[in-house]
Specification:
Elements lengths: L1 H7 L12 H43 L2 E2 L10 E2 L3 H7 L2 H35 L1 H16 L2 H11 L6 H11 L4 H4 L14 H29 L3 H9 L4 H12 L1 H16 L3 H6 L13 H11 L3 H30 L5
Antiparallel strand pairs: 1-2
Helix pairs in contact: 3-15, 4-5, 4-9, 4-12, 4-14, 5-9, 10-11, 12-15, 14-15
């Protein structure tokens, strides 16, 4: 047998080893952990996003069809169907606060962009070094705490001791400026945050002051992407500085304008901090100083009607979607760089 094997050159086959059940289980676990390693690393983010991002959305939808007092616990939750939406849509206060929000959004939003565009063009024209210093100065209000900014303006708006009224009185009583501003004495003290006719303008100015620098930075960044040869060619053709801004810079800034205005629409329609702080937590809020977000807060945290607050929040979501959709429909194609 041995001689036959040596002559033919065949090698006896090794016996097959079958892994034990324990080894098979270990190999499966090893493969699972190797393939799942990337998912284990991102799992904390997924869990946090699911708990604080996705779950609240579905819970708010669920809650908008119920009435619930959070102080009384989950047992007090009761299904009411579309009642919260019906009551909200027939509530005149909701429509009034929505109108206040739209007015403040327009007053502060339009002024932001009408000022930010030429200011950004001027900053870019001043040169590299001056642009960086001035852009930083204009951007500081945006990174400053909203509560701090609103508190400072609350003090400045004070009827008796505020610096704004004191400056106006100084102008009215000045020897040189008295003949122009003397009529202001008849209006003193001006109650900037207590008069319904003035509070929208007062809040709008605070919002304008805080966010105009952000838009200046966006437009300045857009202007730096424009080829300088286009300005030089227009200048050779006899275009003035205004014409270079109007016919060269503005058309090429459309994507940046579209982006900035979209952010302004969404941000201003969600306006909460400035009116809340300026009216001392709505305790001194005049009728025209309450935005829809402030009204939502009052429903949920002062009246403890979380179901009604959830319904109002979804109504606000739809309103913002409508305004943004209209803006996309009117200017989206040009703003995104498409052709007609």
């Amino acid at each position: 047998m041995t001689q036959k094997t040596e002559l033919t050159g065949t090698v006896p086959e090794a016996p097959l080893t079958v892994p034990s059940p324990v080894q098979q289980e270990d190999s499966r676990l090893k493969a699972f952990f190797q393939k799942g390693t990337p998912y284990w690393f991102v799992s904390p983010y997924i869990i946090i996003f699911g708990v604080f991002g996705i779950f609240p959305i579905f819970f708010m939808i669920f809650l908008s069809f119920h009435t619930w007092n959070p102080v009384a616990g989950l047992a007090s939750m009761r299904f009411v169907g579309w009642e919260n939406y019906t009551l909200s849509l027939t509530d005149p206060t909701l429509w009034h606060t929505l109108w206040n929000t739209v007015v403040i959004a327009l007053l502060s939003g339009l002024s932001q962009h009408l000022v930010a565009l030429p200011m950004a063009y001027l900053l870019v024209s001043l040169g590299h070094r001056a642009r960086h210093w001035l852009t930083t100065a204009y951007f500081l209000p945006y990174v400053t705490s909203t509560v701090a900014v609103s508190m400072i303006f609350y003090i400045m708006y004070a009827p008796e001791s505020g610096i704004i009224n004191r400056a106006l009185v100084t102008l009215a009583n000045g020897q040189i400026t008295g003949f122009l501003f003397g009529w202001i004495n008849d209006l003193m003290p001006i109650r900037w945050l207590q008069e319904n006719s003035l509070i929208r303008y007062s809040i709008s100015f605070v919002v304008f002051w805080k966010y105009v620098g952000f838009n200046i930075v966006i437009y300045a960044a857009g202007l730096t992407t424009i080829n300088k040869e286009l300005y030089e060619a227009a200048k050779i053709d006899g275009a003035s500085s205004w014409q270079r801004f109007r016919f060269v810079a503005l058309p090429l800034l459309k994507p940046f304008i579209f982006f900035a205005v979209t952010l302004t629409i969404i941000g201003n329609m969600n306006l909460f901090d400035e009116p809340y702080v300026l009216t001392r937590g709505l305790q001194q809020a005049a009728t025209n100083g309450m935005t829809i977000s402030n009204y939502l807060y009052r429903i949920g945290w002062e009246w403890l009607d979380m179901g009604g607050a959830a319904a109002v929040s979804w109504i606000l979501f739809v309103v913002i979607g409508i305004f943004t959709g209209i803006y996309f429909w009117l200017f989206g194609r040009e703003g995104l760089g498409g052709n007609d």
